[in-house]
Specification:
This protein has 8 helices and 8 strands; from the N terminus they run H-E-E-E-E-E-E-E-H-H-H-H-E-H-H-H. It is α+β, with helices and mostly antiparallel strands and about 300 residues long. The termini are far apart. About 10% of the residues are buried.
Length: about 300
């Protein structure tokens, strides 16, 4: 009896374990009843019929990453490229993921590789490095359309590596080096050109400033000379006016006679000092008449 009781207890435990199922969060379990699809168990505590229902497939509904193996792709200009990528996808329908394909992971891997070869074949080598976003978008579009029958949603595809052959890589590096040297020479020549322009502008500005300075100096000199001439003329005019006023006063004529006689004698005295020839008036007796003639001229000027 005890043995039978133990067997029954073990049987009950087994039935209980097969009846009660706990589905984790973000998971979906596919149940088959008598060999046919019956239902999909959602997260939580679920009950199935032992020996009748069977958990056929268990799917993870979180976003998953799939490493797509690298492969050789031929570009439009017949250049080989080693291309690898990473695929991000998510199971959205557990039933289709179970029965739409015998292995949806292999299916999307193969489809991503064939699509990648097709897209790369339409592009030239230089464009493959520039159009990564276009390549990624094309692969996602093709996979997403086909993966609907597999219960899978392809979220995005990223190129992980894009490696040309060594000789192509060396040629590209040489091209980049030559382009950089070209830009350096252009920048240097532009700098030299700008330097010459700056020097020419500086010389031009200096010449303009010098000419303006010379012009202003000439103007200032002319103004100063004119001012000096005007000052001398004004001084002479004042002196003549004073002399005229002095002559017009009482005794002025006699003073002029005396001054003219003194200057006349002094002139002959200076001529005697600076010349070996003795200059004597032709008629010394007429000296007084010469002085009288000079004073007559002075008087006539004063009348006018």
């Amino acid at each position: 009896m005890e043995t039978i009781g133990i067997v029954l207890l073990i049987g009950i435990i087994i039935v209980f374990v097969k009846t009660i199922k706990v589905v984790p969060q973000q998971h979906a379990w596919v149940v088959e009843r008598l060999g046919r699809y019956y239902t999909t168990l959602q997260p939580g505590l679920r009950i199935v019929i032992p020996f009748v229902d069977r958990i056929a497939y268990k799917h993870n509904l979180t976003e998953m990453t799939l490493d797509v193996p690298s492969q050789i792709c031929i570009t439009r200009d017949n250049t080989q490229l080693q291309v690898g990528g990473v695929l991000y996808f998510q199971v959205t329908d557990a039933k289709l993921a179970s029965y739409g394909s015998n292995n949806y992971i292999i299916a999307i891997t193969q489809l991503s590789q064939t699509t990648l070869r097709s897209v790369i074949g339409k592009l030239e080598l230089d464009k493959t490095f520039e159009e990564r976003s276009l390549i990624n978008h094309s692969i996602v579009s093709a996979l997403d359309e086909a993966a609907l029958n597999w219960g899978v949603k392809v979220l995005r595809y990223e190129i992980k590596d894009l490696t040309p052959p060594a000789e192509i890589l060396h040629a590209m590096q040489s091209q980049i080096t030559a382009e950089r040297e070209k830009r350096a020479l252009i920048a240097k020549s532009q700098g030299q050109q700008q330097e010459q322009i700056n020097l020419a502008n500086g010389a031009k500005e200096s010449a303009i400033a010098k000419s303006e300075g010379d012009k202003q100096a000439t103007i200032n000199k002319s103004v100063a000379e004119a001012q000096a001439i005007l000052t001398v003329a004004e001084a002479n005019a004042k002196a003549i006016k004073i002399v005229g006023q002095a002559i017009a006063e009482h005794g002025g004529i006699e003073a002029v006679n005396l001054k003219v006689a003194e200057q006349y004698i002094e002139a002959f005295k200076q001529l005697a000092k600076t010349n070996n020839t003795v200059i004597v008036p032709s008629n010394l007796g007429d000296m007084s008449s010469l002085i009288t003639s000079a004073m007559t001229i002075v008087k006539q000027n004063n009348k006018h």
